[in-house]
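Ticket #4471: structure output looks truncated?

Reporter: J.K.
Steps to reproduce: submitted the chain below (220 residues) through the standard prediction queue, then opened the result file.
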Amino acid sequence: MIGFSGHGTYTRLLFSLILVVALTPFFNLIPGGKTLFHLAFIAVIVTAVWDIASTRRLLMISITFGVPVLAARLTSMIGNSDALFLRGAVQGLSVLFFSYIVFEIVWDISTSSNITNDTIRGAFCAYILMGLAWASAYQLVALLQPGAINIGTGTESAQAQNYTYYSFVVLTTLGFGDITPVSGVARSLTWIEAVTGQFFIATTIARLVGKRMRNDSNRK
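Returned output as attached by the reporter:
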């Protein structure tokens, strides 16, 4: 595994990701929701860097991607998060960071010969991070091209909830239709995410399950 040696490499990351996805709908309902929203994402960033940085090279690359997005999140949390440049920086850097972490996790689990429960947790981490990466991409498109996605209005945390919801609806190809892409860029991102989500399940997940079944069969 590329992360910490020993058991539970992806457990921390998966736990923090589940918390972010599960608690996002409630951040706009409580006082200080904006701060809690950013803190939750900061926890994901720190955990992701911590869990995959097993070598100096990975540590330096993780820091290179992680520090800028961490700084942008902290600045947005304590400063004027309504500034277009800052909001765009947060989302753009989040896309780059999440995409890099997904790449490292997928590479790790795809090249692993011994499929453990932690490998499966890594696959779930990659899948959730893909959804969050696209959610940030949609928010960036909407900032640069208002009206690109028919998603309504609301607070920053409420909008983040809507984009996260839309991203996972597309990733899983549920297709409820209550939120729709309008611009060409938004439509392209939407179909690319849908194809990527299905491709990930059909290849990566299926391969891991197949390897795990063969490993279990060989032990008998």
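Triage note (M.O.): checked the attachment and the full token line is present. DSSP finds seven helices and two strands in the chain.
Status: closed, working as intended.
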